[in-house]
Amino acid sequence: MAAGDVVMYSNHKLRKMNGDSIVDYDDGSVKMMLLTSNFTPAPLTEVFLSEIEADEVTPGTSYLAGGPALANPSVALVAGNSVFDADDETIAVDASGFTNAIWFVFYYDTGNSATSELLAYGDYGTAKSIIDSALVTQWDAAGIIEW
Fold first, then answer.
1. Strands of the chain, DSSP E
2. Phi, psi (deg, nearest 5) at residue 124
3. pLDDT tier, 147 (very low <50, low <70, confident <90, very high otherwise)
4. Are 109 and 69 in contact (CB under 8 A)?
5. How distant is the alpha carbon of residue 45 from its chain centre?
6. Pair type for strands 101-108 and 30-35
7. Predicted TM-score (pTM) of this structure
């Protein structure tokens, strides 16, 4: 996977097709958690946030545990495909913040990590820090997730 590519969890696709998923992409409950290099994606087996949350970066002043909710989420039909998009994500400078964000994971926040469904993940390619500058994640102009 190239750095920055977003990959959907296979179990999420299966749950959507079976009608087992409660995810509503544009209701404001999709969040982005940042993870360290201890995380290894397992898209064929992972289903819920509780399975990966131990690898989250250390929360601080500008990055709260669980990560930010994506702002202005939208879903549209584009050229026959469903496309999810949201505003680019910025995490402010924090002198006591993390230095080791390698991965980001989107999940649907139910308020309980055992039922918060994993949606997709991506790789920054190198460790990201918020010590000296904000972390700005710019999504593809065509959208974040397409299927």
1. 6-8, 30-35, 74-78, 81-85, 89-91, 101-108, 118-128, 135-137, 145-146
2. -70, -20
3. confident
4. yes
5. 17
6. antiparallel
7. 0.94
